[in-house]
């Protein structure tokens, strides 16, 4: 399993617990970029290739994203694959 683009749970928790008002612009930008990379990695790698904890965490993250942003019944990974021409044929 490739963990290079993934954030661990401690990092995510620390980012959530630190108020934005105490973060620098650089910190906020870094969190945004690494968060996007983490979400992309979450969708590209199949759950069957992840640890149980990572798979569960990713499923919770997807559910949260769908409820916050509305569900199109298409994952970010499906959208990325479609944009790259690797989607369903």
From TrEMBL:
Keywords: Stress response
Entry's transmembrane regions: none
Protein name: Chaperone/heat shock protein
Comp. bias regions, Basic and acidic residues: 1-18, 39-50, 59-81
Presence of keyword Membrane: no
One Pfam family this sequence matches: HSP9_HSP12
Keyword RNA-binding: no
Chain spans, region Disordered: 1-89
